[in-house]
Specification:
Layout (H helix, E strand, L loop, with lengths): L10 H14 L4 H21 L8 H13 L4 H17 L9 H17 L14 H5 L7 H16 L3 H5 L6 E4 L2 E6 L11 E6 L11 H11 L7 E4 L6 E6 L2 H12 L7
Antiparallel strand pairs: 1-2, 2-3, 4-5
Helix pairs in contact: 2-4, 3-4, 3-5, 7-9
Protein name: Tyr recombinase domain-containing protein
InterPro entries: DNA_brk_join_enz (IPR011010), Integrase-like_cat_sf (IPR013762), Integrase_catalytic (IPR002104), Integrase_recombinase_N (IPR010998), Phage_Integrase-like_Recomb (IPR052925)
Keywords: DNA recombination, DNA-binding
């Protein structure tokens, strides 16, 4: 939270600013990025169409939703735009336009028309999930990069942890158990208030799975990585590559998964 100089600011203004800062943290950073992007797009449309800015009437929101549908946006984009406009009104303590029955019916009708006339805007192309057979065919680099990437893939696969959860993982969050490791997740997409969640990472017990044991892979990484962050970015190249001490970002994890997933044996 931003520091406030209470010696040079009237108390009433200080309290109001504090309230706004605290209320803004009710949304995650990623949610704010979506909100800013969607609101910017609406402002451009409103300026071009001559519609008033705030508060937005239900009729204006309906017209904007129609404009988005005609521009080729998917149904998820319609929901995202409506949500962003509602959030702006909520923070301004204004009536949310989507509370109107007119808006709800309009959005429902748009989605039905899109399904009938533009089904490509409704379909969601979901990526196929990674399976253990897929992981067994992956090629990992030699050295500490391969150690990190293998532990990352296997830990994520075995626990179902999200990229943001893997990115934030610290050594203190991992406890050894009789069956492997117990991992504490302090913050996630569905847990923005720091409530403790735990997942178990279990040992492989037999057969060819032993070579792809997530506990063994994570243990090897923990022995190699310095500092507190578990999944770290790298500094240097070639023989001078080393752990940076900094957490991998969620985007970097996505890039690693994509790179390793594309390096599979097609013979198996």
């Amino acid at each position: 939270m931003k520091d406030i100089d209470i010696l040079h600011q009237p108390p009433a203004e200080e309290l109001e600013l504090n309230r706004k800062l605290v209320q803004a943290r009710s949304l995650s950073d990623s949610s704010w990025r979506v909100l800013r992007s969607q609101w910017s797009k609406f402002q451009q449309w409103a300026k071009a169409s001559g519609d008033p800015m705030l508060p937005i009437s239900p009729e204006t929101l309906c017209d904007y939703m129609t404009h988005l549908a005609e521009s080729g946006i998917k149904t998820a984009g319609l929901d995202s735009a409506r949500w962003a406009i509602d959030q702006i009104h909520r923070f301004k303590e204004l009536e949310r336009p989507s509370n109107s029955e007119q808006v709800r019916l309009h959005l429902k009708g748009l989605k039905r028309l899109m399904l009938e006339q533009r089904p490509e805007q409704v379909r969601i192309n979901r990526k196929q999930p990674i399976t253990i057979d897929h992981i067994r065919r992956m090629h990992f680099q030699e050295g500490i990069i391969g150690i990190r990437d293998k532990a990352l893939l296997l830990t994520g696969f075995a626990t179902g942890m999200r990229r943001s959860e893997l990115s934030a993982l610290k050594k203190d969050d991992i406890q050894a158990t009789e069956f492997g490791y117990r991992i504490t997740i302090w913050k996630s997409k569905t847990n923005q208030e720091g409530l403790e969640e735990k997942v178990d990472l279990l040992k492989a017990t037999r057969g060819k799975n032993l070579d792809w044991c997530p506990v063994k892979a994570l243990e090897e990484l923990l022995e190699a990585v310095p500092g507190d962050a578990v999944f770290q970015s790298m500094n240097g190249k070639g023989v001078s590559v080393r752990f940076s001490g900094k957490h991998l970002s969620g985007y970097s994890i996505a890039c690693i998964v994509k790179k390793v997933s594309n390096s599979t044996d097609s013979d198996t």
